[in-house]
């Protein structure tokens, strides 16, 4: 949360409108921004819905009351049928902005996190000054020489009309599996202030976890959150392979889709071979995205490295 947000007049208005102490209003906003960072990185929270928003911030009264208060206090903007986080580009963490930039996406209000251009209005000559200068100038004494172009009329070709520029294609959202692995790398970078050294064995571990959660992105992200929240020194460094090895510790109580929760164990050689076969069965687009991610996160070898 930015400095000064707690004392902002909008925070006091939200607390007053919901009949809450100010610290509760601060908690609602912090929870809302955390939710947007993981589930709506562009700032468009329309698809999440009022009930899920209320559940995420632990609001125990009518969900519509919360949404209307957020809109009235200008913490959330209505854009037609859409609900957008107000000034999300200012409240979003750097990891969210980097994620959007890496995938060629913009914030939902089409703003881009860039430095603003300087005000150049003081360098513009007013139109009335140009008009006065033209009126005071002396007329030219010499008349322009006329040129007869009738002889070359046949040689003059009409200019072609300029083609209208093609509209920019909408960027495709990243595949769920890529979002899962990118989220792990971003969380690791936020915790250790360095780029995660992604290797081939991490790809195998990520694929095993992805298969366990049955391609449930929300469940996968929750597991990652629990993993990085663990302060046990045994998990210092928080490698993907270690998460995969102790996955049962971080799965939580959420049942596996289409079946009860089961005790997890590391995959056998046969299961590892099946995971690789499943990877080969993925659409080519998802395979290429995964390979590109492996190449992106692979550490560069230097002259001091030894085999």
Structural account:
48% of the residues lie in helices and 3% in strands. With 307 residues, it is an all-alpha fold. Strand 1 and strand 2 form a beta hairpin. Helix 8 packs parallel to helix 14 and helix 9 crosses helix 13. The model is unreliable at 113-153 and 255-262 (pLDDT under 50).
Tally the beta strands.
Answer: 2
Content of β-strand: under 5%
The radius of gyration is 29 Å
How far do the termini sit from each other? 45 Å
List keywords for this structure.
single chain; about 300 residues; mainly alpha; two-stranded antiparallel ribbon; about 50% helix; globular
Q: What's the short version?
A:
With 307 residues, the protein is mainly alpha-helical.
Task: Spell out the blueprint of helices and strands.
Elements: H1 9-17, H2 22-39, H3 50-56, H4 63-72, E1 76-79, E2 82-85, H5 88-91, H6 94-102, H7 127-136, H8 176-192, H9 200-212, H10 217-229, H11 240-245, H12 247-250, H13 269-281, H14 284-297
Antiparallel strand pairs: 1-2
Helix pairs in contact: 1-2, 3-4, 8-10, 8-14, 9-13
């Amino acid at each position: 949360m930015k400095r000064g947000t707690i004392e902002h007049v909008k925070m006091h208005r939200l607390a007053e409108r919901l009949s809450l102490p100010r610290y509760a209003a601060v908690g609602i906003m912090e929870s809302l921004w955390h939710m947007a960072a993981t589930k709506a990185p562009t700032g468009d929270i329309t698809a999440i819905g009022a009930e899920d928003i209320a559940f995420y911030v632990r609001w125990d009264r009518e969900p519509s009351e919360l949404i209307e208060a957020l809109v009235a206090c200008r913490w959330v903007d209505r854009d037609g049928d859409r609900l957008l986080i107000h000034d999300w580009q200012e409240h979003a963490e750097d990891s969210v902005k980097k994620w959007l930039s890496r995938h060629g996406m913009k914030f939902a209000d089409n703003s881009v996190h860039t430095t603003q251009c300087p005000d150049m209005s003081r360098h513009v000559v007013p139109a009335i000054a140009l008009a006065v200068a033209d009126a005071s100038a002396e007329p030219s004494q010499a008349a322009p020489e006329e040129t007869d172009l009738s002889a070359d009329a046949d040689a003059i070709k009409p200019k072609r009309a300029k083609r209208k520029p093609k509209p920019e294609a909408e960027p495709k959202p990243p595949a769920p599996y890529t979002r899962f692995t990118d989220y792990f790398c971003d969380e690791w970078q936020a915790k250790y202030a360095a780029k995660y050294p992604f290797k081939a064995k991490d790809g195998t571990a990520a694929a095993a976890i992805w298969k366990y959660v049955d391609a449930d992105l929300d469940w996968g992200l929750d597991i990652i959150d629990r993993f990085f929240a663990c302060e046990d020194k045994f998990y210092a460094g928080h490698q993907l392979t270690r998460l995969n090895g102790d996955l049962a510790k971080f799965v939580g109580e959420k049942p596996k889709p289409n079946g009860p929760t089961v005790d997890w164990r590391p995959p056998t050689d046969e299961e590892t071979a099946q995971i690789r076969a499943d990877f080969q069965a993925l659409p080519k687009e998802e395979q290429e995205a995964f390979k590109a991610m492996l190449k992106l996160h692979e550490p560069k070898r230097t002259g001091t490295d030894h085999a």
